[in-house]
Amino acid sequence: MMKSSLKYIFPLIPFLFIACNKKKETKDIHSENLLVFPTGEKITNGNFTGTAYLQMLMDADSLNSISVGNVTFEPGARSKWHTHPAGQILLVIDGVGYYQEKGQPKKILRKGDAIKCPPNVPHWHGAGSDKTFVQVAITGREKGETVWLEPVTDEEYHK
Ligand code: MN
Hints:
Layout: H1 2-9, H2 13-32, E1 41-42, E2 48-49, E3 52-58, E4 66-73, E5 78-79, E6 82-83, E7 88-101, E8 107-110, E9 114-117, E10 123-127, E11 133-140, E12 147-148, H3 154-158
Antiparallel strand pairs: 1-3, 2-5, 3-4, 4-11, 6-12, 7-8, 7-9, 7-10, 7-11
Manganese (II) ion (MN) binds next to strand 10.
């Protein structure tokens, strides 16, 4: 009886080993909190309040009329109010941040969130006041460049 059941269990042992190792590997990647993309260069164009960094990942071309960039906001940093003529999609890579459309309450964004900024709707995005925020911005380019508006005041930011 004992002998015959072992006959069935032994061939399964290598598979159990593979399953356990795979689980451990996935856990290590998450617990080390590795950043996905490079931080890039400090943004100095005046369209941001506080310290933010940009790493362009993809420029628009004749096949794909979108650009893709990784933006890292230090705590309290945020964009000015702005609009995108062809809209934008934000993928949150790390940290906690905010997204707000004009006339709407601020939304809290967390790692793993994805959000759409509709075309020509004034909005801003940035970090929480005590958290770094990393987002990948996918921006439609076929209808022109981002239109930069006024800075987000401290009152608007903290509201
Ligand atoms: Mn935007």
